[in-house]
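Query structure, 206 tokens:
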């Protein structure tokens, strides 16, 4: 039983098969009982599982077989449609869009960023850092980890861009650059550890 939100009779002006949602209880820190949200086509578009704070704000849309769950949020005019899936605290805003069979896990999309086809944009399983997509970039392949895509960059099908390093990989029309925190260039004293292993000799003379 859905005790999280109800689908109202307030239809979308352009797509009358979509209707606004209204919160039936407080959801997270932003949504209060009675607040109106964005648009859905049916209940399967937005999770109503207990403890799931996923929400659709403003004029954002989840339609078709698209699904928003596990703390993810859509803001402004963002759209999840087709069979796309936004999960694990994904945040989409602006006119960003996930369509077709796209899978977005823990990423940030803004402006006109788009994930299409079988595109995947995933948080790194090791560093837990999320990709950031902005501008007019489009992803049809796979993007994972500490990656920032901007401008009109396109990741084609079967292409994978992955970064698990301590630095951010930034890609735009000018090319690829590395963004380093200033602290990365500072040396710090070695921290003694019990039973610390010595580096291998690698054949060097002493």
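Result returned for the query:
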């Amino acid at each position: 039983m859905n005790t999280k939100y109800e689908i109202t009779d307030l239809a979308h002006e352009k797509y009358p098969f979509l209707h606004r949602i209204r919160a039936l209880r407080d959801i997270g820190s932003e949504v209060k009982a009675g607040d109106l949200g964005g648009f859905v086509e049916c209940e399967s578009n937005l999770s109503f599982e207990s403890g799931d704070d996923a929400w659709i704000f403003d004029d954002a849309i989840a339609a078709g077989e698209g699904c928003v769950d596990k703390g993810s949020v859509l803001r402004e005019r963002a759209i999840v449609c087709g069979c796309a899936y936004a999960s694990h605290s994904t945040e989409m805003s602006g006119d960003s869009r996930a369509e077709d069979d796209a899978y977005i896990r823990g990423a940030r999309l803004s402006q006109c960023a788009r994930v299409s086809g079988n595109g995947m944009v995933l948080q790194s399983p090791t560093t837990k850092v999320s990709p950031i997509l902005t501008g007019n970039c489009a992803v049809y392949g796979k993007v994972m980890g500490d990656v920032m895509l901007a401008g009109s960059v396109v990741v084609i099908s079967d292409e994978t861009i992955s970064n698990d390093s301590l630095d951010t990989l930034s890609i735009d029309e000018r090319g690829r650059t590395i963004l380093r925190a200033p602290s990365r260039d500072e040396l710090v004293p070695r921290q003694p550890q019990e039973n610390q292993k010595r580096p291998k000799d690698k054949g060097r003379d002493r």
